Amino acid sequence: MNRKSWEKIFKDPGADYRSKPFWSWNGKMDEKELFRQLDILKEMGFGGAFMHSRVGLATEYLGDEWMRIVEKCLEYGKKIDFDLWIYDEDRWPSGSAGGIVTQKKENRSHRLQLHILKASEGDAFLKENQEKMIAAYQCILEGHEYRELAVYEGGEPEEGKNILAITLEESELNDNYNGATYLDTMKASAVDDYLASTHDKYHKELSKDALERVRGVFTDEPHRGAFLCDFSEGNQKSIPYTDELFSAFKERYGYDLKEHLPEIFLREQGKTFSGVTLDYLELVQDFFLKNFLKKIQDRCQEYGWLFTGHLLHEDTLSNQTCMLGSLMTGYEYMDIPGIDLLGERTSCWWIAKQLSSVAHQMNKKKMLTELFGCTGWQMKFENYKSIGDWQALMGINLFCPHLSWYTMKGENKRDYPASIFYQSAWYKQYRYMEDYFARFHVATDGTPSDCKLLVMNPIESVWARTYTGCFQWIQSNDEGISAIERQYEETFRMLMGAGIDFDYGEERILAGHGSVENGKLKVGSCTYDKVLLSGVETMKESTWKLLKEFVAQGGKLIVAGKAPEMIHAEPDARMTELMEHAEKIPFTKEAVTESCALEAPLYQLENHGQQVYIQSYRKEDMITFILLNMDRDHSANDISLTLNGEGRVEEWNARTGEIREVMVSDGKAELCLSLLPGEEKIFVLQNGENLLKQKEFSYKLSEKNVAALDRADVYLDDECVAKDGDVLKEDRLIRDRLGYPWRGGEMMQPWYIEKYYQEELKQRRNVKNVFHFVIEELPEGLELAVEAEEHTEVRLNGTLLKKEADFWIDTAFSKFLAGKSCLKEGENEITVTYSYGKDSGLEAIYLLGDFGVKLSGKGVEEKVHLISLPDKLHAGNIVPQGLPFYSGSITYELDQPVEGKVSVTLDEMTAAVCMLHGDTDEIIAFAPYEAAVTGLKSIEMVFNRRNTFGPLHVPVSYRGSYGPDTFLKTGDLWEDEVQLYSQGLPEKVTLRKID
User: Which CDD domains does the entry link to (predicted)?
Assistant: First the structure.
């Protein structure tokens, strides 16, 4: 989309950028009244609405009449071009289907309850609660610390000891669930019943036309049960339970949770941190993610609906720990992940950063916020603006205003007013508010342009510190946890106040989507140059491994304040060693901002205090810079903003839709401005149109594709001496068996062996290597490149292959032709048999042909699969596109030649050299990777041979010297899986017209 298109959208944004309020269905629903209200919602500037059951609903939830009016509203929404969404519950939290599902006892939520008893009470309690008992223990208890813990089975306990009894309790019946309870959201069969009662019912009973109008489903405040807190059905001595808890715990972690249950509630004397608690909280979180969120995600995908909503309690790390664990992990499973924000003067701005971080990393374009709830009738437009601005600044682009009432009858008028609807005198003017927010969302439509810092989320350090009494309601009541919370919040304010953009790194997401390439940490679709540890006390082993590789490749690891010493809540020398490679700084604003600042930022913000925040977004060749004065009481004056880049600088006014040119930048634009309390400014740097719009390319390979096979079963005189091993290491094994010295840089010269060891050379043994590969798509044929000695025999699936006359790459590699008749779908076998002597050696072999290659399996189980070559290549790494071992050149064809003279800029060099083909040929080899060419037709990336010839098992981060021993490394410098460099046409190639 070009600039003119964006300008048009900004002036009059469509429904996709507009808010979708909670449309509160809270009375006896009437079809004509519903249609009238839909017209008003459209008139107010909304782009859609969520059909939301609320207190006061008089039409049976999910009954026949309910389904009929939902159907009719969807039909009317189509008529007026207004999007409608399903809300998946009767009130909230989502999961019980208004108590329908939890009428069945087996679907109800449960908890484990700790009872701290005097010695004299223990025996009677166990007898009285026999059916509910999970376990009982005796110990000496002092505060929340215990010692001399032992199992208690009744009778008279040892003198001076307390009894710890743990019972299984079902949640109490509750009118909020229409006389039932909340759902066990960790239990697969319970969630299946919930889905059958809601999602499946809608899909079954609505017409095909109506279903096509359902945009998606909103899930509201689901959770896995209260943990050591007084919220919902929990208390400070209870934790969530599900049927699979103990068996799944034993299977995953290898020990019996029942033997360690007290450690979740209390602490062994002298211990501050608990690995058992980490394991427990991780497991119950994963139950919820897999059995609730993932099931809803899958069902929505099956039905063609978007999955959105928000989880329960994100404001602090303690809030999250109490009700879910880590909310960031849940955002991965939602098409449009969201948060909620209750009240007006909140300042927990980091919750938007938590959401946007995962959305950026998981490449989710939309983020939701449920906002304006609990604000009251006294609100002005200015108040609504102040709530929405900072969330929009962080990239949240789908607003769900709370609340638009169907009726004010009775109790309904007190259901978190004000009603953002026809009941408010200003409803006809509200479109001005919606136009403003929609334009703000257009301005943030894009990807963060200057975010290269990852801040580790320290929530598992909170988990490890928890115990009975550490939370009051859902807030920290423990100084250690509170200290983490304070540092977490202050880190956010330091960085944002200094104009340094960042994302949070959640450890579970890092474990699933993190990698290190060329000294940068990749998390999903994002890449980071620096990692900041602030308030982190313990981390997962998987995180430690990732950070170790990051610093090994030259990445910058920063530790603010006290350095972590633990892995999985236990002191660990490996962590101490990692910290030796980190930059340690005091936890001060000056030190943090200096160390975390980018070396070449897109902008500099100065003289702005700590309350002016800036975010920047890139779309096509536009970079949008948005400033917001977060202070609603004081102005910010004489702010200096410097934009680094060439092009036209414009100010885009979200209030009016007006666009005006500010200046033309020839490399640096310096702006001086002031901001009133709560005021925003939007500037756009238009760099000129990038002429390269292609996402996929027709291509030409300069050579046949190649698959390297370097693992084989080796036989000596028909005895299998190694299975699926590296051929070079197997060669040393054979030479050991035969009494020959190893090959290497200092081995005896072949001429010398031939001259002085003629008798030994006559002593030959039968050695064969058996290689395996899988064919998923049969190629027309293929060739084998083998270093074939005089008596070498090559067979493919038993068929003897003949040597061809020519060679591959080097005269050492003979080619053997294998026709299609030799091949088969599934596993194929190549046998290379040698008449092996002192002058012999085992080597890898290579498959050549018109096929694609993919790798499957881990470690020694890794296999090579032959698939079809892709019809087209997209920009970026060719390794996952069927060309992992390829090392020739690839010519990427433009759809049509570019007329005239253009400059071509590569964002990075991911080949040995680049050739531009046009009316003339030009070369790009050195930074800044630019060249000019006339009539550009194609771009050729010429690669090096590393991904073919290796060393294929040494990490790409290896920076030592390369020689014979590099190919036979061991320990940390050896990986069983092949280690491949990223190569291909860079994802960002910029073409500019030259006048």
Answer: A4_beta-galactosidase_middle_domain (cd03143)
